[in-house]
């Protein structure tokens, strides 16, 4: 039986709920020292005393830490010195966050402060003994968002990518993620008050075991990950205490896209000569207005062109550069296709500009957001070590679509399609922040699909596509990079913009 004998275990958020259960379980597993941290001095003191009443071997101490304060988190990590295992279970009370009412970047960024930026900063400065581990905590809304939870879903999904990236960057330190289902903790008291039992009963009815979990049960998942030296980069999901499953992300194998929330196909059947036959017709974008943010180059331009080729009535391309917009319009018009082509200048980093852009569009049919940073300049910069620097990484790909979705108007049958990237599923050295940001789009998409219904919300995750982006990133070394990448793909080649554009067309149609 593996134990935590002679190990130092730190639990951020250890004064209550799951965190307290992990601290107690660590002591029961013979940890030498357990340090719990929380923002409430009184709660820390009470929890330390509660743990001591169990009269278990092992030293218990507590520290006051404001997990929202990145400077405090940095100093906390440095002052700890070398430890064996750190568990981060600290998080906001969802009831106080009013996710559905948040419609500005400034307010929305606060949702990321404890669960995402806290561990991000801690990981930059913590020191681990050999065999050490860092375990983060997600939540139900990441995989199964409810009405109004799209921002929470995006934030929690960001943890998936952050964990995958940190597992690469902190190796041999093991980095894992636990995603609890409904666990009966104090957070439900804060959320539901005297209606808590009714809420738990409702949740229980949706689980196989017809009950919610206990903190001591989910604590076993954290113990397992601390003790098991062969487990890394895992997402341990607790499906409402039905069962635990270790979910391992499959490696990226080709340039084909990952599509989320595909539309339902309605196939019309007619009887003819006693045989049911399918009546097929090629779907087009006839009489539709298509907006492509990032439509002046790369994948976005290919989507704009493909939309015109599919008989779109109007295609509007948007970019931050007026010169690129003008050039993109001329290139599209050179194909002499029916359909109007227009351009708009919008700074996708400026939330007010994005809001005004969305409002100014009026009602449209389909919006594609392909705009993004040059990864070589920002997404995968290992020198980003502060929250202020890191927040800029989310500006275009996450906060841009978030704000646009709040204000855009769609005709019946409309859709919004976002764009992710390779590092979400298969991060490389130094890509933990980019991986976290790109993974946040998974949850944002799931949440917006709930909140914007019947508007369809989808996400395309392209592999390696030969666009101008690679010229900017690698210059004359591009072909060598492509050769290295294609040797690891099934098709032994990179994709072209026109190929991936078909994925966006599919989702619009």
Automatic annotation (TrEMBL):
A Pfam family the protein falls into: SDR
Example of a GO MF term: oxidoreductase activity
UniProtKB keywords: NADP, Oxidoreductase
PANTHER family in UniProt: DIHYDROANTICAPSIN 7-DEHYDROGENASE (PTHR43477)
Family: Belongs to the short-chain dehydrogenases/reductases (SDR) family.
Protein name: Uncharacterized protein
Organism: Psilocybe cyanescens
């Amino acid at each position: 039986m593996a134990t935590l004998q002679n190990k130092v275990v730190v639990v951020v958020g250890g004064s209550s709920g799951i965190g307290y259960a992990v601290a107690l379980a660590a002591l029961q597993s013979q940890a030498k020292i357990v340090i719990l941290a929380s923002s409430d001095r009184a709660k820390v003191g009470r929890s330390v005393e509660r743990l001591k009443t169990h009269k278990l071997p092992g030293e218990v101490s507590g520290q006051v830490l404001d997990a929202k304060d990145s400077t405090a988190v940095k100093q906390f990590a440095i002052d700890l010195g070398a430890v064996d295992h750190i568990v981060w279970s600290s998080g906001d009370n969802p009831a106080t966050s009013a996710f559905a009412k948040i419609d500005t970047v400034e307010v929305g960024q606060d949702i990321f402060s404890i669960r995402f930026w806290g561990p991000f900063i801690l990981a930059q400065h913590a020191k681990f003994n050999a065999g050490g581990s860092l375990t983060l905590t997600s939540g139900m809304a990441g995989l199964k968002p409810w009405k109004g939870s799209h921002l929470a879903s995006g934030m929690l999904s960001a943890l998936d990518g952050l964990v995958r990236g940190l597992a690469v960057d902190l190796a041999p330190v093991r980095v894992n993620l636990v995603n609890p289902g409904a666990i009966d903790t104090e957070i439900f008291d804060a959320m539901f008050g005297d209606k808590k039992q009714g809420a738990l009963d409702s949740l229980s009815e949706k689980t196989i075991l017809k009950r919610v979990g206990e903190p001591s049960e989910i604590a076993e998942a954290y113990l397992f990950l601390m003790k098991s030296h062969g487990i890394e980069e895992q997402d341990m999901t607790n499906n409402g205490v039905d069962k635990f499953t270790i979910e391992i992300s499959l490696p990226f194998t080709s340039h084909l896209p990952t599509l989320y929330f595909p539309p339902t196909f309605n196939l019309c059947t007619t009887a003819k000569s006693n045989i049911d036959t399918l009546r097929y017709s090629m779907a087009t974008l006839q009489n539709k207005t298509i907006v492509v943010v990032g439509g002046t180059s790369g994948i976005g331009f290919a989507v704009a062109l493909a939309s015109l080729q599919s008989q779109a009535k109007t295609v509007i391309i948007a970019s931050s550069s007026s010169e690129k917009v003008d050039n993109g319009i001329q290139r599209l018009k050179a194909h002499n296709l029916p359909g109007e082509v227009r351009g708009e200048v919008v700074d996708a980093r400026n939330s007010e500009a994005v809001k005004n852009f969305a409002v100014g569009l009026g009602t449209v049919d389909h919006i594609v957001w392909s705009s993004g940073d040059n990864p070589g300049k920002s997404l995968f910069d290992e020198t980003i070590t502060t929250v202020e620097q890191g927040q800029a990484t989310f500006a275009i790909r996450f906060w841009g679509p978030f704000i646009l979705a709040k204000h855009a108007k769609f005709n019946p049958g409309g859709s919004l399609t976002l764009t992710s990237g390779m590092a979400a599923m298969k991060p490389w050295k130094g890509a933990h922040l980019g991986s976290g940001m790109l993974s946040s789009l998974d949850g944002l998409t799931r949440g917006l699909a709930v909140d914007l219904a019947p508007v369809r919300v989808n996400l395309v995750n392209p592999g390696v596509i030969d666009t101008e982006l690679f010229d900017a990133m690698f210059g004359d070394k591009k072909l060598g990079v492509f050769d290295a990448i294609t040797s690891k793909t099934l098709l032994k080649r990179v994709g072209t913009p026109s190929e991936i554009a078909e994925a966006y067309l599919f989702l619009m149609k």
